[in-house]
Amino acid sequence: MRPEFREIIRILLTRKSILAATISIALIESLLAIALPYLSRVQIEVLESRILAPGAALSTPLALFVALLAAISLIRLLQAAAAGLGRVIDVYARERFTLQADALLYGKMETMDAGFFNNPKNRRLLYVLFDVGQLPGAVLQFCKSQGRVTVALAGIFPILAVVDARILAVIAAAGALQLLVLRFRIRAENSYRLYKERRLADILEMKFLLRYHYHQVLGVSGEDRIMPRYWSRAGELVALETGQERLAFRYQLVNVFVEQGALAASAAVAGAMALSGALSIGAFTMVTMYVVYLQSCFGDINQSINEFYRLRSVFLQLGFFLALRPRVAVPDGAPAKAAIAGDIEVRDVSFRYPVLTTEECDYLSHLVTRLNLANKRREVYGSDLSIVREWQRLLDENHAPNPLVLDGVSCRFANGSITALVGRNGSGKTTLMNLLMRAYDPERGAIAIGGVPLATAHPAAARHAISMVAQAPFLLESYSLRDNLLLGAAREYDDAALWDILGELGLADELRRFPGGLDSVVGDEVNLSGGQAQLLCIARVMAQRRRVIILDEGTNQLDAENELRIVGILERLKRDAAVIIITHRMTTARKADLIHVMDGGRIVESGTHVELASRDGGVYRGFWEIQVVR
């Protein structure tokens, strides 16, 4: 059994009571739907017997009629109760299973290549995880629907066969014809939908970008060129939408014709029997009700075919993510909360960003081939085509290994000091920091913190030891200022302590102006400048109180006054930590106790500012002269 199927089954089996309740409700609904026409038949036959036998005693038919009326009312009440209870159970099941599926996905993402999802090109692959989270609940609903249809067919067909085999033959033939029409409809609609989605994506993106940039277009007087193209594409959009509706309308007419034909044929056979006296009026009514119910079952089968395509697509996406191998090994028995502190030693480290493994590429090729074949048969869900393109792009990008980013790097970041890391863009500075946080493992060489090799430590332990302020400030929107400040905090802080931290950064007075204070929501009630966001991230570092602090261009959006304040705070924090500053500002680097200069993935110079600035022809001296001396 494939891992994706095994995982979904495992999730479903963790809630056996939900499964039992869902199956029971579906079975009860099906049996009630089968019983209702039969009771209606008996009720009508009771009326027939009273009409045809006027001399019969009144009490017996009346009592039976009242009992049948009560039974039918009870069945309808039970149907409403079962439907309502089923919806409640469905919602509860969907939410419970979604939480468990999300836990599976987040657990998998924790072991994956951090750069995979950070790469904007892979963002679409991340979006499909929302569908994967809903997969267990969707599978349960699919099975429930199919089970209800199966029970209905298994219960109704024998009854119709007993009434008259010709009626069963008519219904079976009409049902087969109806399913054939529905099959052609699905193929035609899928084919058109794929064509439409290719065109629609470009048109909608153009419309969005024009609205976003319209005043810039006006600013260069470019509307005479752009607007005619816009109206032309907008007309294409209308044509695409109406084309799909025309296609659906044609097949809807055919479908209604087949449905009514089946109903008319069965009514003709049953009616002829009723007129000849071979069939009671009650039996005629029962047959008609069963035929109508079977028509709805055939409609459910139509919907289930589309749902099958969708579920197949989501299963393939889940299989893709489960097939990705962890990029960082987790040693057996390594504690996730182990304390790591001390000097950081980097010894002869070489690294290139990982590509997909051979097994991953083989699996991806299998998925692409499978969906391409389904596309040719026009048996694909709408999103499959774009997913195939994304997967094909991943395969195309993995023909050759990536180049070395770090090549034999050896350096030291001492505890109790500030070390600056400078160098040109693309020299490997951020990559080295990613290795320190154990987002990746080196291809060659080793890294140790306090004498503990990172390769023997749990990745979570490395993350808990390091605070990072990135060049692009990381704040969670839709969460409060307090939530963002306390991410990864060493302990809970009361409001007074948090305001003290913010006051030390000169940020308290600005944030107090927000109406919600620390409970103001970022991105909704709070709009921060780039500098304010960086200061908030530095405040988070102060609350985390960790033994390694990394600022990756973490002060690049601050003015000189705030930058000087941050350097002073780092001087205090370094007493209990190793502080690393990645910067292009030589005025910041000069304040460090030690400076490492990177170029081409190597450490080419190391020393204090005075030593490096006095070195003729040195890389650091070149930076210093460009930024300060000139």
Question: What report would you give on this structure?
Answer:
This protein has 630 residues and is an alpha/beta fold. It folds into 4 domains: 1-164, no CATH class; 165-278; 355-396; 406-629, P-loop containing nucleotide triphosphate hydrolases (Rossmann fold, 3-Layer(aba) Sandwich), CATH 3.40.50. Helix content is 65%, strand content 9%. It has 23 helices and 10 strands. Helix 20 (560-573) links the parallel strand 7 and strand 8 (578-582). Helix 7 (135-163) runs antiparallel to helix 8. The model has no long low-confidence stretch (mean pLDDT 83).
Fold topology:
Layout: H1 3-13, H2 16-52, H3 59-111, H4 114-118, H5 123-127, H6 129-133, H7 135-163, H8 165-212, H9 214-219, H10 223-276, H11 281-323, E1 344-351, H12 358-376, H13 384-396, E2 406-413, E3 418-423, H14 429-436, E4 444-449, E5 452-453, H15 459-465, E6 466-469, H16 481-485, H17 495-504, H18 508-512, H19 530-544, E7 548-552, H20 560-573, E8 578-582, H21 586-589, E9 594-599, E10 602-607, H22 609-613, H23 619-629
Parallel strand pairs: 3-8, 3-9, 6-7, 7-8
Antiparallel strand pairs: 1-2, 1-4, 4-5, 9-10
CATH topology of the largest domain: Rossmann fold
The mean pLDDT is 83
Using only C-alpha atoms, the radius of gyration works out to 35 Å
**Major beta sheet summary:** 6 strands, mixed
Total count of domains: 4
Q: Would you state the CATH class of the largest domain?
A: Alpha Beta
Determine the structural class based on helices, strands and strand pairing: alpha/beta
State the distance separating the first and last CA atoms: 68 Å
Shape: elongated
The CATH superfamily label of the largest domain reads: P-loop containing nucleotide triphosphate hydrolases
Q: How do the strands of the widest beta sheet line up side by side? A: 6-7-8-3-9-10
| Assembly context of the chains | single chain
Helix content: 55-70%
The low-confidence runs, each spanning 5 or more residues with pLDDT under 50, are: none
Question: Helix count?
Answer: 23
The total count of strands amounts to 10
Beta-strand content estimate = 5-15%
CATH architecture of the largest domain: 3-Layer(aba) Sandwich
